[in-house]
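Problem: given the chain below (112 residues), write out its structure.
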Amino acid sequence: MASTKAPWCPVTATVEVIGGRWKPTILFHLKDQPRRFNELRRLVPGITQRMLTLQLRALEQDGIVARTVHNTIPPHVEYAFTRKGWTLGPLLDAMEAWGEKNGPRRRSKVSA
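Solution.
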């Protein structure tokens, strides 16, 4: 009986870890500095608190993001890239450059 499982693909493996509607945007905002949860929520318009929590947990499980609880008053939680997460920097930079050059533009009020 022939196997129906697709051969391993490194692009698919990457997309499984960082793909989806929200993860690329979350990662983009973490690439330059650690961020607090509510700061990420403001930077990613449209994401719910629950979805942000789920996405951050998934990134933690994949070893891309680390969660640090600071014992301050009031306590706060911060998210930052792990060593493995930092390796995504060039990929995120390339995606940013491609989007700036080729992504959809905001339509001006004046027709061309």
